[in-house]
Amino acid sequence: MNYTIPEPQQRISKNAVKVWRISSVISHIITMLIFGALLYCQDRFGWYDWIGHVTWVILILVGLDFVYGVLIRPVFLQRTWRYGVDEEHIQLKHGALEKTHIIVPMTKVQYVNTSQGPLLRKYGLSTIKIGTTASSHEIPAIPEEEAESLRTQIAVLAKITENE
């Protein structure tokens, strides 16, 4: 029997790029402040010179990662993310360089929930988390109403009850 599952076609929100960029900027600024404080302490307290040299190298690497993490990565993630839900499977497909395609049978789904952080809430987005016996999977940055509907659809198809 030759059974093929069609490729997932649903996309995550374009606002995901904004959310991931803001998140990346915040984390990179915090990292740079920490290493800036190390440089200040190295200079102020006369620590070994190698500490300053290593800190500068790390700061340069963080700067390069900043360019990648703010300008390039969010766009590629949003463009490559696909998901699909049918009666028998949940499909998650993403990645440009390292491609990932996950197929989760509905019979293995144990729970499904939605979550929002402050940035997702600001842009009206939610993340769906799907749990199985062995692992959990996420569909990021879906519009709130669609996420609620999809969560309910998955729960019904997986026959999840509130007593479980």
TrEMBL record:
The chain crosses the membrane at residues 19-38, 50-72. Residues 79-154 form the YdbS-like PH domain. Keywords: Membrane, Transmembrane, Transmembrane helix. Pfam families: bPH_2. The keyword Transmembrane helix applies. InterPro entries: YdbS-like_PH. This is YdbS-like PH domain-containing protein. It comes from Bacillus gobiensis.
